[in-house]
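Hey,
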Amino acid sequence: MRVRFDDFLLDTDTPALTRGGHDRPLSRKALQLLAILLERRPRAAAHEELREELWSTASSSRRSLSSLVTELRKVLGDEAREPRYIKTVHGVGYAFCGNANDTQPLKLDSLLPPGSLMWGERCFILVEGANLIGRTADCHVVIESPLVSRHHACVRVGPKSVSVEDLGSRNGTLLQGKRIAKSTPLKDGDLLNVGPALLLYCAPKGPATRRRN
């Protein structure tokens, strides 16, 4: 859960990156990227693998990934041409090339997003707590259809479980083809029908299920 390299310390429980005991501001995605590269070291992580783990889909652009690498290098004081920590492996991806020591077993779960909903090519990263699905702009997943209620359904992400419930919608919510009447647990690969939308629930990938090079 804690990895030290030079005077930097990554703590995935917090999660935070510190240098000399002082916080170094990084976005959550950049922290997650650093944790993945540290876990893979010294092996390189492929572009497609990183995009899939960071955004739950491999279709995110390379520009999005490269911007995270740029953010990470800036905070670490690293240079792309003469890297001390983040090395570009041309045609493959990125690798952590510095010396690092695990002060405790590395745990990435706290940095992983709590699952996602896929709607065709669109990916909606879930957040802890309530994730509304409906027709209005305040919903986490907006489905513009007269068959969908303003607040149609809700996916709730708790500390240990994820569930879905219908919010009294006119046309109902279907889970695996069956209309639900109460809060129902979600598992990886479950399909939700909300009006014309077919949503695929993707659970977060823990260390045991992550693909390896």
